[in-house]
Amino acid sequence: MLSIEEINKLLGVDESYKASSVLFKKLMSKDERQKLFKVFLAKETDLTFDWFTDYFQEEHSDRKKNKQDFTPDGVVTLVNRLLGSTQFNADICAGTGGLTIKRWSENKEAHIYCEEYSDRAMPFLLFNLAIRNMDAVVFHGDSLTRKAKGYYRIEPGKQFADIQKIDDLAVAKAETVVMNPPYSFKWKPVKEMLDEPRFKPFGVLAPKSKADFAFLLEGLNRLSDAGTMAIILPHGVLFRGQAEGKIRQKILELGYIDTVIGLPEKLFFNTDIPTVIVILRRHRADNKVFFIDASKEFTKHKNHNRLEKEHIEKILAAYHDRKDVDKFAHLAGMAELKENDFNLNIPRYVDTFEPEPVPSLTEITADMQEIDKEIEAETRNLSDMFSQLVGTTPEADREIKAFAKYWSDRYG
Q1: CB pairs under 8 A, 24+ apart, for 295-304?
Q2: What's the pLDDT score for residue 41?
Q3: Is 373 in the same domain as 340?
Q4: How high does pLDDT run on average in the chain?
Q5: CB neighbours (10 Å) of residue 17?
Q6: Both 260 and 380 in a single domain?
């Protein structure tokens, strides 16, 4: 893993805040770009993961305003395996490209489409696509308002891809869509958006304080009829009411939600909240929803938790088997979903309650005897303390001694 210092040195900057602008200038020059790629590859040859995840998150991410949380490797691996093979993958809110890189690493011939808003993240995303010689197009702009800052074509070459800034792009529906959007992002919906195909079938817009469902519907709009989408979101999308409740109910009635997977807390760098992976498909044989409670599937590492290989394999086995597993998974039909008012909160469907073990009478008796001994010892201590008390006046002293004698006679 390249350190912050190594990356800055390779980019030729003395301060991390300069990295994005310097990198972008070098990427726009073919000679500088290829020279930079060779310098990086001399230091790191494994192209299957994003070298910049930790660097960008620690040095450049905007958690307060843009709520940027980069996807940890265990979640990246799980999402990639859930989606399977593809010929055309779309990554909405791509960041520096961690999810896209994992999709590409197992689908080298796939066409790639990325969207990203952050000016700081964009050069790193372009770098990651081009050094891996991907066939890709990039929308630089706001995924919700569709306001563009720029468009890029990543054209595969002999060793590295070329980066061309283009005037516009037309994007077909993707076979797989992957998303890790900013959680509970504040946005500015306007009623005219209800006429857009992505929002119109649902009758309402996501609330301005939480754009989670707006991102979900944007991703769904990018999905082909036979495609599969995976989106990582906070648990609130499963049970919040008002407009979100109406959108969730409509999505369920249309049969788009396939699987809900609850993940452990403390997986992400900038937030401790537990998250959920929602799998969506447009055309399915039924409208049942499969629930997996993987909240306990993790290994503790310092301040954060990790999804390890054994946890991922357990989740995937249940996902593909699609059968009830005690305290772990449940397949719910539409009748059950309606009974729960289309609330998808996982504990409503997967009961993970573990009753406290009932101790034997022998254990209870032993505990009571131990408590009796403790009471007896503490009572004697109190008697000793009372006997040593002295009043500040003769009258007070007589009262204290009388109480001490009473206590000693009764409890001593």
Answers
A1: 295/262, 295/263, 295/264, 295/265, 295/346, 295/352, 296/264, 296/352, 297/264, 298/264, 298/267, 303/266, 304/72, 304/266, 304/267, 304/268, 304/269
A2: 96
A3: no
A4: 90
A5: 10
A6: no
Secondary structure class of 82 (helix, strand, coil): helix
- Maximum separation of any 2 CA atoms in the chain, in Å: 105
Q: pLDDT at residue 222 above 90?
A: yes
Q: How many CB atoms lie within 10 A of CB 143?
A: 22
For residue 44 the two structure tokens come to 């790191």
Domain boundary among 348, 370, 393: 348
Residue 103 belongs to a domain with what CATH number? Answer: 3.40.50.150
Whole-angstrom Cα distance, residue 245 to residue 253? 12
Cα 69 from Cα 266, distance rounded (Å): 12
Distance CA 201, CA 96 (A): 32
pTM, full prediction: 0.84
| Structure tokens that stand for 289 in this block | 């929803």
Same domain membership, residue 48 and residue 118: yes
Ramachandran angles phi, psi of 48, nearest 5°: -85, 0
Q: How far is CA 286 from CA 85, 253, 289, 290, 316, in A?
A: 23, 11, 9, 11, 20
Q: How many CA atoms lie within 13 A of 122 on its CB side?
A: 24
| pLDDT level of residue 270 (50, 70, 90 thresholds) | low
Question: What's the residue count for the chain?
Answer: 412
pLDDT at 69 over 70: no
To the nearest whole percent, how much of the chain has pLDDT over 90?
Answer: 71
CA dihedral 309, 178, 159, 141 (to 10 degrees): -140
Q: What is the pLDDT of residues 279-290, one digit of tens each?
A: 999 989 899 999
